[in-house]
Amino acid sequence: MLYIQLHQGELSHPISTLEEYFRRGGVTIIQAAFGHSYFIHPDSVREKTPYFPERARFSRQHYPGAIKGQKAVWAGDGREVVIDDNQHAQLAWGRYTGHGLARGTGYSIRHIWGHPWDPDAFTAGWNLCYMPFWAGMLTEEQNLHEELEQAVRQASWDLYFRDNPVCPPPDFVKDTGMDLSSLLAGQPLLILEREPSAPTKRTHISGPNLPDTGGGKVQRVKEIRSQSHQSWSNIRKAARALQGLEHGPFGTHNVENSAKSCVRKIHSETALTFAQIESLLDEQGW
Question: Mean pLDDT in the chain?
């Protein structure tokens, strides 16, 4: 039999309720979040940060009227940037870790210190964390759990800036003064590392026996894509799938098969490898 209860008055606070359930289970909300959140290895960040210095996320305040794919000027240093959504932050994560964004799994990439409109922060490894939706939501202003937000920022500071900094910290990146080791009670920070067999670098399109990206092969890729009526997104997924890499889900099996067929045709007619096709999409901003 189903029971009901009538309720009047104030509603319980969802975040406080969630925290109480975690405590009953023997962990704090911070420990639970850090148990399933991943950071980039400091050595990888030190090698290259930001990953795409010419990209920035759209912002009505900083790039009024600019939309994805358009060029704008970053007022911080007068640099010309290409406006993006979160695509290149996700690409940077994949390049740093060897693990692309696995869609439909409840994870997302979060900007630890915010400022995605700043091209020095948008694709910087020290600003990226792979978090479950429920934990990432609690670092956003509208649902903010301040202690969790500060803990994630402290982790970034301790990993990337406390000793042997990966780069000079921007003005908005500071030591929060939080004793993270006590909060985590011996729980480790999780670093998502490349598989030993994974390549550490992507192959660029320009090189021996390959024309510059402004040449005929780029045009042929565009033509094949147009003829097959494929989206750039599905072509990217197919290129990654054919490399055996993580990729977003296809709408249907037919979509997947036709996208892979398109990528194989590009490979056959241009001699570009699947990895080079993916790199071409990155370099062209497709």
Answer: 86
CA distance 194 to 209: 30
What digits encode the pLDDT tens for the residues 2-58? 888 888 888 877 677 777 777 777 888 899 999 999 999 999 999 999 999 999 999
Q: b/e per residue, 225-236, with b = 16+ CB within 10 A?
A: beebebeeebbb
| Residue 79, strand partner residues | 74
The two most distant CA atoms of the chain are separated, in Å, by 74
Side-chain-side CA neighbours of 147 within 13 Å: the count stands at 13
d(CA 57, CA 83): 6
Evaluated on CA atoms 50, 280, 71, 100, the torsion sign reads negative
pTM for this model (two decimals)? 0.64
Phi and psi torsions of 74, nearest 5°: -80, 120
Q: If pLDDT is split at 50, 70 and 90, which confidence band does 274 have?
A: confident
Helix runs in the chain, H state only: 14-24, 29-34, 42-47, 87-97, 119-122, 133-137, 146-160, 180-184, 216-228, 232-242, 253-270, 274-284
Q: Name the pLDDT band for 202 (thresholds 50, 70, 90).
A: very low
Tell whether the model's pLDDT for residue 184 goes beyond 70: yes
Closest C-alpha among 240, 276, 238 to residue 257: 238
Give the pLDDT confidence score for residue 196 in this predicted structure: 60
Note whether 138 and 148 are within 8 A (CB).
Answer: yes
Burial class (CB in 10 A: 0-12, 13-18, 19+), 246: middle
